[in-house]
Amino acid sequence: MPLDTTPQTDPFALAQALSGAHLIDGQFAAAASGKSFDVINPATGAVIGQAAEGDTADVERAVSAARRAQTDWARMPARQRGKLVAACGARLNEHVEELGRLVALETGKALRTESRVEASVLADMFVFFGGLGSELKGESVPFNPDMMTVTVREPVGVVGVIIPWNVPLLLMAMKIAPALVAGNTVVVKSAEEAPLTVLRVCQIMNEILPAGVFNMLSGFGPECGAPLVHHASVGKVSFTGSVETGRIVARAAADRLIPATLELGGKSPMIIMDDADLDRAVDGAVAGMRFTRQGQSCTASSRIYVHDSIHDVFVERLRARVDAMVMGDPLDEATDIGTIISSQQREKVEGFIEAGRASGATAIPCSALPSDPALAKGLFLRPVIFTDIAADAPPAREEVFGPVACVFRFSDYDAVIEAANDSEFGLAASIWTRDLKTAMDATRRLEAGFVQVNQNLVVQPNLSYGGVKASGLGKEASLESMLEHFTHKKTIIFNMT
Questions:
Q1: Which pLDDT score, from 0 to 100, does residue 35 have?
Q2: Minimal CA–CA distance to 78: which of 179, 170, 175?
Q3: What pLDDT does 3 receive?
Q4: DSSP states of 216-238
Q5: C-alpha closest to that of 63 among 260, 263, 216, 206
Q6: Cβ(298)–Cβ(266) under 8 Å?
Q7: Which value, in Å, is the radius of gyration of the alpha carbons in the chain?
Q8: For strand 428-432 and strand 269-272, is the pairing parallel, antiparallel, or unpaired?
Q9: Which fold does the domain 269-460 belong to in CATH?
């Protein structure tokens, strides 16, 4: 295993050097079973490395290390913990290019448009939360003038974190940065499709943090994730993934009566009024659909409602914009769009596209598959824009998690708000208009946890993020998330009479 954390330039060599290990108690460690599994480059189908295949024994080792470290970590002054977490962010900022290239290699996300940006936000998230150590404040309660009554914030203990593959660095940082500053220790179970960059981050941070404070396991859900959620010493679970798995995690947490934060699926609506800046709205649809990420985003604006008077010109401009995007090698600076993460995911998305066609919708394929023979086995997929699609067609109702956008006509404002809310999900939404009254009304009525006007920004530090309905429980990326989800409040009464 590499002991040197000098930024590396060759992601292929780094992937090999990181192969076959967890990071437990500050040290690289092979799986207790000795098993490992292949990590695949989705752009070529080639094996780029191996990941340790964790199981119950590995979870026991990692949680035990975290539990041992937690006492001293919690006793450390909060501002000092914050300084260490901020130092991790500063160190990770030195590795942005390295981490961006490595995550592009194992996820297939384009380096220029996606992976380098994610690595930058990763570092920023640690710096942001590192500055919030002094905000772990209690209160003075006017209970009785003859008594002193105060509250204090205390950590929940060991936090089990399970992250997905689509933005593994950002989603991990949103969870572990506030957990660490609040005085908890963490055990992260990475996504089996994208374990290596997360492992590298853990290695870099373990040069700064005390041993056992941040531990990382790789493996599959039933064998590694489930034992982590069920472990008796885990006091909190934070999970991002599918609704189906989220319900399993929630039931396990409920059985143990421990808190769980769940960031689950989405089917985000984007409403474009007739007075909207059309060019800006087209840019927003390209960004909001996360076409550069092959639509593999829970906040993807996959339901686009366009006023009838501008519908046709909007569709044509959107088609032209996506058509012009270059699909190719994720590590090539000229590439706009990378790959789907796995063959199983591509087959699932293709199934949704076929279902949309079978429903009678008009399918508009965009962009072009790469012509490079070296990419012939890559998991590339042309984005599809559906028009004239029924609201109950599978691509319009279900989370596709692929580059599939459904564009609907509307003429009645109240009806389109009702249509936008007609979903089991409620993660994100946006309204595009020049009219302030319409914007204010829509933000009030849209049933989503993250609503934007005339923009489709991705998650950023200090923006409270989380959904309603089937999109999850709890908020992330803000001071609120650190206080409410990674501490509990203790009431103390002094009666010295």
A1: 98
A2: 179
A3: 59
A4: EE---IIIIIHHHHH-TTEEEEE
A5: 216
A6: yes
A7: 23
A8: parallel
A9: Aldehyde Dehydrogenase; Chain A, domain 2 (3.40.309)
Which residues does residue 365 pair with via DSSP β-bridges, in sequence order?
A: 384
Residue whose token pair is 């309905």: 469
- pLDDT > 90? residue 378: yes
The 10 Å Cβ neighbour count of residue 138 is 14
Q: Which two tokens stand for residue 480?
A: 């609120």
Mean pLDDT of the chain: 97
From 98, 106, 263, 447, active-site residue: 263
Helices (H), 182-310: 196-205, 226-230, 243-256, 278-288
**Residue entry with tokens 């143990």:** 256
Whether 263 is catalytic: yes
Segment 75-104 shows an average pLDDT of 98
User: What pLDDT is attached to residue 1?
Assistant: 47
Residue 186, amino acid: V
Q: Check: CB of residue 177 under 8 Å from CB of residue 130.
A: yes
The string of DSSP letters for 402-433 reads: SSEEEEEEE--HHHHHHHHH-SSEESEEEEE-
Residue 225's contacts (CB-CB under 8 Å, 6 or more residues apart) are 162, 189, 219
Q: List pLDDT tens digits, range 211-231.
A: 999 999 999 999 999 999 999
Has residue 289 got a pLDDT over 90? yes
pLDDT digits (tens, 9 = 90+) for 109-118: 999 999 999 9
- Which numeric CATH code is attached to 11-264+471-492? 3.40.605.10
267 token code pair: 């089917």
Q: Average of pLDDT values for 439-466?
A: 97
The DSSP code for 470 is: T
Instruction: Kindly state the helix (H) or strand (E) to which residue 86 belongs, with its residue range.
Output: helix 78-93
On the CB side of 230, CA atoms within 13 Å amount to 12
Domain range summary for the chain, segments of one domain joined by +: 11-264+471-492, 269-460
